[in-house]
Amino acid sequence: MSEAQPQRHIRSFVLRQGRFTPAQQRAFEQHWARFGLEPAATPPDYQQLFGRSAPLVLEIGFGNGEQLLHAGLHEPDKNFLGIEVHRPGVGRLMNTLAAHEVANVRLYNHDAVEILRNALAPESLAEARIYFPDPWPKKRQQKRRLIQPDFVDLLASRVARGGRLHLATDWADYAAHMLEVLDAAPEWRNVAGEGQSMPRPDWRIETHFEKRGLRLGHGVWDFIYERV
């Protein structure tokens, strides 16, 4: 009888890479050594990687990277890690980071759960940001949603006490799900009060995708939680 294999976690994404442009391919060839990080079995020395000591902020699922670029440019006192599984978005962001000479952003092109488990030490993050994750709207798909009790417990173990988790979604059902999961998590406190959302804070820009949704009449919900 073969040895039992470790159970794999349910992926919150499907790799639909889309068109990988020549410019995005060149980004990996020219800029990955500067901005990219390879998954590791143990946490790297981020202070050494960034060349300085600063609060470490993680954005999970940065898409095309416009928010992470804005953060790197407008929050220079912080070091930023971004995680995104889709290579075209990673390539696009690396090109814009290079064009703007951004020095305080590094990127993983990998699964967020594995990075949190293996490449981040306990209480090493000052903040985590998750903006507009895939809502997986169909009932049979909802087990794939990123915001689940096990995931927010793992995230809590990596965020320092007093640190922050900022979520945003434009899907009402997912907003309700986020509140249900996070308000029940003992390690997190809803800054706005149980069951409440916040106005969009200054550090989060309205993305192109978000503006399109607002024009279509979608709502947008921001939630900020403090690690207790």
Report on this structure.
By secondary structure, this protein is an alpha/beta fold. The chain has 8 helices and 8 strands, in the order H-E-H-E-H-E-H-E-H-E-H-E-H-E-H-E. It has an 8-stranded mixed beta sheet with strand order 1-4-3-2-5-6-8-7. The N terminus is likely disordered.
Q: Structural class from helices and strands?
A: alpha/beta
Shape: globular
Count of helical regions? 8
Trace the largest sheet across and list its strands. 1-4-3-2-5-6-8-7
Task: Please describe the structure with a list of short key phrases separated by commas or semicolons.
single chain, 228 residues, alpha/beta, eight-stranded mixed sheet, 34% helix, 19% strand, disordered N terminus
Give the gist of this structure.
By secondary structure, this protein is of the alpha/beta class. The protein contains 8 helices and 8 strands. The protein has an 8-stranded mixed beta sheet with strand order 1-4-3-2-5-6-8-7.
Walk me through the topology.
Elements: H1 22-35, E1 36-37, H2 46-50, E2 56-60, H3 66-74, E3 79-83, H4 87-99, E4 105-108, H5 112-118, E5 125-131, H6 149-158, E6 159-169, H7 172-183, E7 188-190, H8 208-215, E8 221-227
Parallel strand pairs: 1-4, 2-3, 2-5, 3-4, 5-6
Antiparallel strand pairs: 6-8, 7-8
Helix pairs in contact: 1-4
